[in-house]
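fold description:
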Amino acid sequence: MDHDGLRVAITGAARGTGRRLAEAFAERGAQVFLSARDLAAARRVAEAINRRGAGRAEAYSCDLAVPDSVRGFAATLADRTSHLDVLVNNGAAYVEGDDLADVSDDVIENVMAAGGTGTVLLTKHLLSLLRASSRPDVVNMISACGEVGHRRSGAHPAFYAAKHAHAGFAEILSHRLRPEGIRVISLFPPDFVQDGPRRADADLAAQSVVDCVVFAVGQPRDCFIREFHFEQVRTHS
């Protein structure tokens, strides 16, 4: 699928699924603006992508838990490009724990700030660049933890709360931006693995999630895929 020339911003792109997303878009010819808290790690990803010679990548610092960092990243992109075709809200702080007391107050604050406030602020400050695109998409990498009634993850309750905030934001954003032709695409994968056999009896693999994003973004503009929901392996229940 050809994404030649698309301008794509991805948060949390220094490792894991974020890195895979950056690589997938760049392999198809996109110009990728990748961000992460760890700028050095983001730069290594960008350098690796640029050595392959398809699309191009640039690395930026953005800590979603720090509003000034979010605004700074958005301002830098506004200076760097006249429009943005795809924003992938991927960055989030994951933490495990059954009990609220399993983590400190600072950790809870960071999880909520990054997954909730930071994502809303970044989308807000990049919306003018998206509106300047002829084919704008906002992709939300949420989690099954953001689904009502989901209880099968080992994530801390604060992560559940942050993902419910992200899900609520995505739902109303989809409704309100639809008349402008801005597609809001949300994914709700269960806990998944970075590498796996990609069989029906195995855990969902990160590359399968990435393939869903690439597929949805590549659809004609009359096709609004609002959400992806996934089944988990039954033996894990």
User: Anything to note?
Assistant: The first helix runs from residue 16 to 27. Residues 7-236 form a domain with the Rossmann fold fold (CATH 3.40.50.720). The longest strand covers residues 31-36. The chain has one domain: 7-236.
